[in-house]
Amino acid sequence: MAPLNDGPGPRFPASRIAVGVPCFNEEARLPALLDALRGLDPAPGAVLIVDDGSADRTAERAAVDGVQVLRHARNEGLAAARNTLWRRARELGFPFVSFLDADVTPPTDWLERIGAVLAQDPRLAGLGGRNVDPLEEDAARPDQWRARFWRQDAGEQPLLDAPMLVGACATYRVDALQDIAGFDARFRTNGEDVDVGRRLRAAGHRLRYEPSLVVQHRRRDDAGSLVRLCFRHCRDGMRATLETPQEHPGALELVFGMGRKAVRAPAAALLKRRDPIEAALGAAACGAGLVGYGVGWLRR
What we know:
The chain is α/β, with parallel strands linked by helices. The chain has ten helices and eight strands. Helix 7 packs parallel to helix 8 (223-243) and helix 8 packs parallel to helix 10. The two termini are 37 Å apart.
């Protein structure tokens, strides 16, 4: 099957796709996403936002024209928020839900490009792309390091049978999610995308990764939050991996990959940029990832 083609051709109508945004304390980052959603051309059939028990003014920020706000009385976690979104999309009759996180910015033609793939590959259960951190020279060291070494994508080549999709920018067929009872609510902050992708594949469904589907990531980190991010990603990624050991990649492959990154990232900082502070940051972040894998293994 050919990669995504930008030329003329059939499109799955955007009016049959609901955009779903899970939010927890996203008052500061949500307005930029709402601006981007207002600019989507073509527009989605619905914009659904879950306020997952926020302690700030997330719900008030989300309550703008054209947006349906769903509220959890208490924080139930990221997987539960995604479940609320796709189930509401299903109730409204939408066959697909396109998840976007509050800290990303999609391009204007986001749904047009998704529609081109869905029309070309109608048996897909899910379609995802890249959540890209801009590598800006004046960005803080943790943000530069994350852009270089903690990329949220699956590389430069399309995958017609991808192992998982990045949750911040993934579109799913709601009937496929229904088939596996949706996201596992035990994954409260991370790993829900790894888990649902592996379970969809285990159930016989297929996911597709298109590197030309790109959203911009607006996350900002300091050293402490970066280390915590790496720990949580790896802890919950390992838990998800061990839930479906028959799927690829396996647990040992994850550990070996992080071990290579723990060598490569500090070496690049020292040899290419002569930056011992970045090298120390990379060692701490990758070390936190390895510890996260260990904790995820023990708490599976």
